[in-house]
Amino acid sequence: MLSSIRLPIISPILLQGIKEASGDMSPYVRKTAAHAIPKLLQTDETTKDELVLIISRLLGDKAPLVAGSAVLAYQRVCPERVDLLHQNYRKLCQLLIDVDEWGQLSFLQVLGRYARSQFTNPAISGKKIDADHRLLLNATFPLLQSRNSAVVLSVATLFIDLAPDDDIRTVISPLINLVSSDRRETKFLALEVVSQIATSHPHLTSPFVKNFYVFWSDGEPIVKLKIKILVTLTLGAPGTSHQIVRELETLSTWDRPNIAAEAVRALGKIACAPDLAQTTLPKLLVLLNDSREIVSGEAIVAVQKLVQHNAERNQSVIKKLARLYLGSKVTTASAKCSIVWLVGEYAHLIPTAAPDVLRVSAKIFIKETNDVKLQILTLAAKLAVQKDVSEQVSLAATYVFNLARYDQSYDIRDRARFLKHLIFSQELEISKYARDILLAPKPAPVALDSSVRYQCGTLSDSLGMEAKGYKALPKYAPVASPSHLRDLPKATRIPNMSTNQSATSESESESESESETDEDTSGPDSASESEISENTGSEKSEAENDQNEPHPEAVPPIATPPQEPVAEPLVEPDDENDQDETDIFQSSVTTPAEQADNGPMLNEQSPAENVSRNVH
After folding, report:
1. 199: Cβ–Cβ under 8 A, 6 or more apart, which residues?
2. Quick one: how far is CA 544 from the chain centroid?
3. Average pLDDT estimate for 55-61
């Protein structure tokens, strides 16, 4: 509660509270302290160093309830401090299965980035990978059966980023189960992950091709993803091409124009493959006469890509497209651009139809979009540089250039000025190469593999653009870090306490014997004075205790336990004085038996009488 106030003035109090709560005995209190750390950092960034120390202590906590929150705090406060994870890496891998579901997401992100920066690429290192690398993969594998779809997707993403090719096979089935889910969001994200796997490993997803067929109830984003996967499998796994082409042909006849146009666009991509061009061409030619403009337009664009592979063989196709344009049956801008470009590029194959296309284009020039206008300018330039150009073609080309000169678009005016000087100017030396420039052979389009720009499973990957807060996945380490970095610190050896205690007791006994010897040799007077003072003090304390006790008669007198005398070394007297002192000392010492016999009598007498009796 206190951390949510976000006032800098209370940050010292909050920091002190977090310090105390992080060491509390209850795991719930430590968990709450871990959640408060990122909030305090947002309020006061000067506390980062002290918060890092608290995080380092929380990362070593063995309670699963605390571990998830500690890793989340580490991810938000100091993700660059990899040194904090070295000694806790193996413990975190073992705790992963016991952490709560949302804590597992933080675990997978942090451990995945750590593994990328500390281990080498398994595709380069071969089948033998680091033991700690394998530990992470083994620890995350059971999570593929989690009931939380976010955890399953995170594990699949981690396997794509870290696992060898043989281990990626294990995540296909859980992802297919998510593709069949009823929730659209889950299905969409699962299809994105499958799409990336199909791009890099098409042979792994080809057995599940029927799971990517489109249903009528699927939304448009899901349909586009499924069609994308089907196209990828067609180009990557040729064994499935025929059934996928039939599926796309069926989709092109659906009464959903956007989906039908997407299917035709997919057929055009498949047509770029040389071995599939002749298979898809008849189906696309049928779609040229479709009543839906968006479908027929996509079919024309797809046919254009097909014709480029073998223009001489497909001369009749070019004539058919030209007749469609002359009959004003083409309405979409993309289809018009494709037909005009084909006529201009292969005008030598259709010498009679090309001038008619230019004549019709000049009539509708001012009504077309800018893209179509640019293609009409290119058509006029290409026909003007042909061999044996007729006067009508030259006039039509000049007329188009004059119309473009006064167009509102800067691009069209600049293009017209450039082409007119390139073709008709005799002063420029480059005009001699105008034919080679405009009619240079163009390569046929090739199906390109979709490159992965962003990390799979992120918002940036879904949007196709870098989102705020996105952090690129670190590259593999060129050399794996040493394994001893992840070893726990060795415990310091504790010295034997019994030996020290025995040595201490011996030294204390020696000091006591020495003190007793000094007291004995000091004479009876000093000993009697000290004993009198001690007995007097004890007498006063006993009297005070007797006054404080409510029932003194019920409490029996406490008898002092007998004390054994300390054995003194026998020393022969050197002279008479030493002999007298020895006799006096021995007379003052009583044996335990005598003390037991005289005990009750001593308790009945006063302390002063006891002292005089011991002295005399």
Report:
1. 232, 236, 449, 450, 452
2. 74
3. 92
Residue type at position 547: Q
- Interior angle at CA 250, CA 244 and CA 252, nearest 5: 105
570 backbone dihedrals φ, ψ, rounded to 5° = -80, 125
Using alpha carbons, list the distances in angstroms from residue 162 to 114, 127, 158, 379: 11, 13, 6, 52
Distance between start and end Cα atoms, the chain: 78
For residue 75, the number of C-alpha atoms closer than 13 Å in the C-beta half-sphere is 21
> What is the rounded average pLDDT of the residues 280-295?
84
Cα–Cα distances (Å) from 91 to 96, 136, 159, 163, 410, in that order, read 9, 11, 20, 20, 65
Radius of gyration of the chain (CA): 48
Nearest to 264 by CA among 234, 225, 226, 294: 294
What pLDDT is attached to residue 1?
Answer: 64
Q: CA 282, CA 266: separation in Å to the nearest integer?
A: 15
Residue with tokens 């579901």: 101
Q: pLDDT tens-digit profile of 453-470?
A: 788 888 888 887 888 888
DSSP state for residue 332 in the 8-state scheme = S
